[in-house]
Amino acid sequence: MKNNLNRGFRTIFKKIICGIAVAAVALGTAACSSEEDKEVEVPKAEKAATVTNGDLKGDSTVVGVGEAAVSYDEYRVYSWFLKNQYEGVLSAEVWDYKLGDATVGQAAIEDILRLIIQIKVMNKAGAEQGVSLGIDEKEDIDHKADQYLATIPPEVQQANGITRDIMYRIFEENEVARKVYDVTTSVEFEKVMVQAAKVLLLHLEADDTNREQVRNQANALSAELGQYTGNFTSFVKDKTGKAPKEVILGSLDSRTALASTALSMQRYTTSGVVEEKDGFYIMYCLKTSTERLNNAYWEQYISEEQNRVFQTAYENWAEKYEVKVSKSLLAK
Predict the structure, then answer these.
(1) CA neighbours within 13 Å on the CB side: how many for 41?
(2) CA–CA separation, 272 and 68 (whole Å)
(3) In sequence order, what are the beta bridge partners of 280?
(4) Residue 42 and residue 40: Cα distance in Å, rounded?
(5) Which residue pairs, CB below 8 angstroms and at least 24 apart, start in 208-216?
(6) Which of 100, 185, 200, 269 would bridge with 284, disulfide CB 3.0–4.6 Å?
(7) For residues 99 and 211, what is the distance between their CA atoms, to the nearest angstrom?
């Protein structure tokens, strides 16, 4: 259970929660200030709304993204979306599980804050670009919010600060964020011929401080693997405590040595040690180049390029707005 949590909860908030149909994108970390009223130093940034650093009430401002103020109740609704989604499957005790030095609950607070900040930044970017909801779109989104509200018992709504106005705002802002993402990533990519291979990947991270040490470790593992009678997955689990990562590598990858080796492998064979800037790799080939696999790789490449384009754009937007977060909220 805990291993699954460690893998899953670190990435869950890279997706917009609560079942609203928006883009699942990997966004950069937005700036949060938890020190003594310390402001994020961003030149010429729009000043953040003042936050409450004391007893929090429903209408207390807990996040300021430029002039946009987020109430404690709005934060609580986002938090409820998460709890409603996972407590039914994993029980309320999930929030007490440890993720390194913090609990799942503590990590969730920070991730919810990042999500809210990102949504607010994207809506501000949308306003600058003229991306908004038309009358029909707004009515449709509000209708979906009403339908969702109807599934939540009144006592649950009251206990979690859920109101129609807040629900409308969240649904509408998530939809605008989705549109902003689509507009930003609507880049035309000329189709090129690609080749791909699907592999299981063992990665030993290394940098200039430990490269030779890790090289020796990788070579030793490769030699031991050559004498191993079990399968690659079992070997990696035994040596690292976790399963190897299944990935599609191809001719457009920036890790050229890794991609070149993968494309030269025969199915069901194991590579030697491959060195890249970020460390050393050993691979097991699951599938060699086919039309279907090559098409899947092309789609993966386009998705990665779109996220790269979006990431660059988001970083530029975020610089325009000072961000403040309530110390009282971070202390929970």
Answers:
(1) 0
(2) 54
(3) 204, 275
(4) 6
(5) 214/279, 214/280, 215/273, 215/275, 215/280
(6) 200
(7) 28
Percent of the chain as helix, strand, coil, to the nearest 5: 50, 15, 35
Mind listing the pLDDT tens digit for each residue in 25-82? Answer: 333 333 444 444 444 454 578 898 999 998 989 999 999 999 999 999 999 999 888 7
Type of residue at 76: R
Q: What is the DSSP letter of 270?
A: B
Cβ 124 vs Cβ 68: under 8 Å: yes
- CB distance 161 to 72 below 8 Å: yes
CA diameter of the chain: 67
**pTM listed for this prediction:** 0.74
d(CA 113, CA 107): 10
| Adjacent-strand bridge partners of 198 | 248, 287
The candidate with the shortest Cα–Cα distance to 222, out of 239, 197, 206, 209, is: 239
In the chain the first and final C-alpha atoms are separated, in Å, by: 24
Neighbour count for residue 118 (Cβ, 10 Å): 23
Q: Cα(256)–Cα(8) distance, rounded to whole angstroms?
A: 29
Amino acid at 66: G
Task: Give the ranges where the chain is alpha helix by DSSP (H).
Answer: 2-8, 72-90, 104-129, 135-149, 154-159, 164-184, 211-226, 232-240, 256-264, 291-318, 327-330
pLDDT value at residue 105: 61
Cβ contact 62:51 at 8 Å: yes
- Give every CB contact of residue 190 below 8 A, 6+ residues apart in sequence: none
